[in-house]
Amino acid sequence: MSYSKSFRKTISVPYSGSITIHYPASQDGGSKTIDYSGTAYEDVEVDIHVDTTPFDSSVASCNTHVNGLTASVGAMNAAQCASIAKNAEKVSKSIIDGFFHTVRTDLSTQKAELEQAVEARLILLRQQAATLQEKQKKMAEDYARTTARYQKIFTDLNNELSIRIHEIDQPVFNVAKDIDEQSDRMLHTDMVQTAVTMSKETSLLQAQINAATVKHHALEAMNQAQNFLVSKASTERTIQESCIDGSGEDGYLVPVCYMRTDSGREGTKQKCIMPDYYSSKDRNLEERLCQSLKDVNFGNTSNTEEEQLKSYVQTEIAKKITGDDSHSDRVRTMINKMLNK
């Protein structure tokens, strides 16, 4: 195979130079230099004819060799992959077999060690069980002997106590024997009807006594209920009388304890006691209350008030003083003595 190709190109060739012209000697004879320059253009045509037959033959031969090489590389790659897979399988199988062999060996060793330990422990347990059985048997024999000995002792003591009790309480046993004989004689005679009649009358009397007791308890319960209602009404009336309806700005009552003592030597002493909440708000509140209550005549307390006060004090004494020792009794007695004065 061959191909031809023609090329055509215009080539420009610049040129320059100088020339010296001599002319004959005369009046004005001599020489003259002339410079020139310019560009010359020329069309150049080139015809190329190439014979590619040897090259094509070489390319075809190279292509054949390349295809053979490609096939060889593919076959080699496939063989290499198969060899790698086979070797990898061999290696993995060897590793797995070696691992499981190691594990089996280790487990077998541990199993053998554990079997030896278990056998040794079982032998020890059998020996200890035999020892415990011997000890149990010996303890059972000792317990049986001790039980028999103490049982004989307690039996003898019971017999001796029974004899002594019968000797001490012989009159009582004689009376009980006589009563049993009299009861048997009464049951086996015509006095049975008398005993039945007495039992009937006794039952009727007992029923009447029980009914009276129930009525008495019911009366006490009604009295207690009445007292409770009276106390409740009195309390409600006291609360109503103590409450003052207002708008919230009215005055309110504060519990105050006022004490005043008269002594010939020390004169009159007075003291006001109130909750700390109110006394902390105003330090001079106690002093002002004492001054305002100084000349107030409170009068004498009524019997009802005294009874209420004593009842309250007795309740507080019972709550606060719960001991039964000598000190508690002395304190309780002194408070009652001062209260009664």
Word description of this protein:
- The structure is a single chain.
- This protein is elongated.
- 68% of the residues lie in helices and 17% in strands.
- The chain is α+β, with helices and mostly antiparallel strands and 341 residues long.
- A hairpin with a 6-residue loop joins strand 1 (2-23) and strand 2 (30-51).
- The strands form two sheets. A two-stranded antiparallel sheet has the order 1-2. A two-stranded antiparallel ribbon has the order 3-4.
- It starts with a strand and ends with a helix.
- It has seven helices and four strands, in the order ββαααββαααα.
* Percentage of residues in strands: 15-25%
Low-confidence stretches: none
Mean pLDDT equals 79
Biggest pleated sheet: 2 strands, antiparallel
Lateral strand order in the biggest sheet = 1-2
- The total strand number stands at 4
Report the structural category.
alpha+beta
Roughly what percent helix? 55-70%
Report the radius of gyration as a whole number of Å: 72 Å
Distance between the termini: 158 Å
Helical stretch tally: 7
Write down the secondary-structure element order. Answer: EEHHHEEHHHH
Shape: elongated
